[in-house]
Amino acid sequence: MNPLSYDVAKLLAGMLVLASFLMLYQVRLSALLNMLGVHAFILALAVAWQATIQHAPELYITALITLVFKALLIPAALQRIVTRLGLHREIEAITGIGLSMLAGIALVALSLEVMLPVTAHIDPVTREDIALALSVVLIGLLMMVTRRNAVSQVAAFLSLENGIDLAAAGAEGMPLVVEISVAFSALMAFLVIGIFLFRIRERFDTVDIRALDEFRGDRR
Amino acid sequence: MIALWGVLGAPLLGAAVLAMIPAYRLSARLNVVVSGVAFAAALELFVRRPAPGLFLMVDDLNVVFIVLSSFVGFTTSLFSASYINHELETGRLTPAYLRFYHAMYQVMMFGMNLALVSNNIGLMWVAVELATLATVMMVGVYRTHEALEAAWKYFILASVGIALALFGTILVYLAAHPVIGTGLQSMAWTVLHVHARGFDPALLDIAFVFLLLGYGTKIGLAPMHAWLPDAHAEGPTPISAVLSGLLLNVALYALLRFKMLLAACPGGIAPGPLLVTLGLISLLFASVMLYRRRDIKRMFAYSSIEHMGIIVFAFGMAGPLGNFAGLLQMAMHSLTKSAIFFTVGHVAQVKGTQRLAEMGGLTESHPLLGWSLLAGVAAIVGLPPFGIFTSEFLLLSSTFARAPALAVLLGGGLLLALGALLWRASGLAFGMVRGPIGPVHASFVPIFAHLALVLVAGVYLPGPMVAWFQHVAGLLG
């Protein structure tokens, strides 16, 4: 393995983790959505790099889909929803920034600790990619549970899916089925979410999940 | 091969056609026809099955699931046809939404059938996701405050679940890759099972944890069950029936396949204890929670969590008896629970509410509905002579022989659930008549068909069927 290709792959995967951290401490919704675009852009670069070093041209398609849909269209559409609906521009988090950053660091340590030993026999590029992808997934989960606003939860979910995309691209020679499916699912997810956001708006004039929490089935 | 295309093609084609038909009476009938064709094709698979390909396969294990799921899909479409008339009259659904509803019903059936017949771990994941998205849309179809919240919660939790399952799937591929090599082969079940011996056990262990959490969310195992009661309670009742009867089974099937893979790999962790623990937690948790339910559909949703707990426990105990009990319990639960939801759907329509406190004396006001509900509850809590008694007795006695402490917990959970459900059901069926007593336009055919099957299975299981189940139980290891 060419050391340069290894270094670049690791750099891009590391940047994706960094972008996850940047998303973790945003307090404004529009800034968060911009970061989501950056996140997906880094992913597109990482996938394209994997396509080059694995000599797997079909991965370029995945990279292109990522670039067009996840880095450009989806953040733009979410921004539009935010302005159209006149949502709160600030993100309400359950924990403070400091605490969630610390938790994020712990999650990265955890994923490296879990994944690196068990992947000892695998190609080193794949190995690092999988470990860092798991960090992105876990930080995405953390973001989902600490955010109250529906739009920021969606953004968190999309960053989580980016992590899985990274893992799929890093897994050498994995058949195209999965890459297409992931892109497809992100699109579908977005469609569903978009519809739901509009419906939610119709009904309660807010996209704050807390407004939904007042309903707890049995207590009505 | 034609049968296999029938199982997949009928729902897919049906979805496309149903999406274009605005006349709801016609589309309700067409929905029944399409589901019937898929069921006929599934029966054909039972007799003659094609050789496994790179993407699709039918073997002894999944054919059981396919036949069961297309049968319940067919009877539910019958129930749905009588159910939606009332929803139109009360204005809860409009013809435009019904068009969408019927198309989505077939998309969901397609997704589930594809997940069951796929020979590729990636394709299977895509199919589960497709079925999930279709059901999310249907749960939210009433567009009320509650329905939207339920759909949103279901969507978010299920998405996280299937995202984790995909990560697990990628890890399985990574474990298979060094042994099998690149290409579609390394994601095909048929090839994976042959080579599982050589996989890296540590990697497969981690993969299984992700798959257990991911597909476990879809199965509705506690503590990942939060979406299940809301989705069951707020969607249209036919969807509650297929969610409980089918979709949970599909996720279970996926988990079982991966469990077989792990079991075939020496040096991996034993999946049994993990399944037993999660199963017991779900069973005990749901049994306790049953006592505090005030909404009839929510109550039976908790009963589904309880039963999935029992089934996962049974597969965790494994061995010929455990697996046999698990398979039988799964089939019986699907049939019984969907019959109960059919009845509950009509009860809720007559009473105009789902609140338990506002209904009562059903055997007096609507004898047929009341007694059907009572029979369904007797079956679901495991009273003889119904089929669930057979499987629960088998499970309990085999667990007693191997791990008495676990059997005590299992028995305790079963008794707790029995108490709660019988207490509620007697309040519903007997006593003073409460709530409106308008006429009911129910189709009793699906209800009776399901209950009759469960009764027959409890009284007499035909020899060939026992042999078949034993054979499949043996495959599960």
TrEMBL record, chain A:
<keyword id="KW-1133">Transmembrane helix</keyword>
<feature type="transmembrane region" description="Helical">
    <location>
        <begin position="32"/>
        <end position="53"/>
    </location>
</feature>
<feature type="transmembrane region" description="Helical">
    <location>
        <begin position="130"/>
        <end position="147"/>
    </location>
</feature>
<keyword id="KW-1003">Cell membrane</keyword>
<keyword id="KW-0812">Transmembrane</keyword>
<dbReference type="GO" id="GO:0005886">
    <property type="term" value="C:plasma membrane"/>
</dbReference>
<protein>
    <submittedName>
        <fullName>Hydrogenase-4 component E</fullName>
    </submittedName>
</protein>
<keyword id="KW-0472">Membrane</keyword>
<feature type="transmembrane region" description="Helical">
    <location>
        <begin position="59"/>
        <end position="78"/>
    </location>
</feature>
<feature type="transmembrane region" description="Helical">
    <location>
        <begin position="90"/>
        <end position="110"/>
    </location>
</feature>
<dbReference type="InterPro" id="IPR038730">
    <property type="entry name" value="HyfE-like"/>
</dbReference>
<feature type="transmembrane region" description="Helical">
    <location>
        <begin position="177"/>
        <end position="198"/>
    </location>
</feature>
